[in-house]
Amino acid sequence: MEEEVKSVLEAYRQAVWDRKPEALLALYTEDVVVFDTWDSWSYAGRSEWAQSVEAWLGGLSDERVRVTAEAVRVVGGGGAAGLSAFLTYTALSPEGAKLRSMQNRLSWQLVKHENQWRIAQEHTSVPIAPESLMGHLSRESDQDGPTLRE
User: Beta strand 116-125 with 28-35: parallel, antiparallel or unpaired?
Assistant: First the structure.
């Protein structure tokens, strides 16, 4: 079960790299609830979430985004599972140069749907600095380059 659930994360990474919103959206249930770090408070259903995904991946022009995951943890069993991880999104130029990056915390609730694991709920977040009320878009260990907050 753990490897099957982790394969959803790999499919997510590949869909983002390929800039294919339809491949990314296929990983979600129709009635998914997404609590995203950016813009809207929440998205109810894949069709609402599609607008954000299409704007993101469609707005990349010739950039690619490499998604890497750390501290991946899978829990659950049967027809339900949870996955948590720290994700790093790194925008790369066509030549492979790092343009910017950000990190966030990811939690997924997944259900087995038609013999495939699908994301039923997604929650991404970043810690907020109490003194500035600004989001930390980089973990302390990632000090090697520009981030979106620069």
Answer: parallel
Give the Cα separation of 64 and 82 in Å (integer).
28
In a domain, 143, yes or no: no
* Residue 150: half-sphere exposure toward Cβ, Cα within 13 Å: 10
Separation CA 66–CA 14 (nearest Å): 9
Domain membership flag for residue 78: yes
Mean pLDDT of the chain: 89
Q: What is the pLDDT of residues 37-75, one digit of tens each?
A: 777 889 999 999 999 999 999 999 899 999 999 999 999
Q: Is 65 within 8 Å of 96 (Cβ atoms)? A: no
φ and ψ at residue 25, rounded to 5 degrees:
-65, -25
Expressed as residue numbers, the domain containing 9 is 2-125
pLDDT band per the 50, 70, 90 thresholds, residue 143: very low
Contact 94/31 with Cβ under 8 angstroms? no
For the chain, what is the domain count?
A: 1
pTM: 0.86
Q: Does 87 map to a domain?
A: yes
Query: How far is it, in rounded angstroms, from Cα 31 to Cα 92?
Result: 32
Q: SS3 for 59?
A: coil
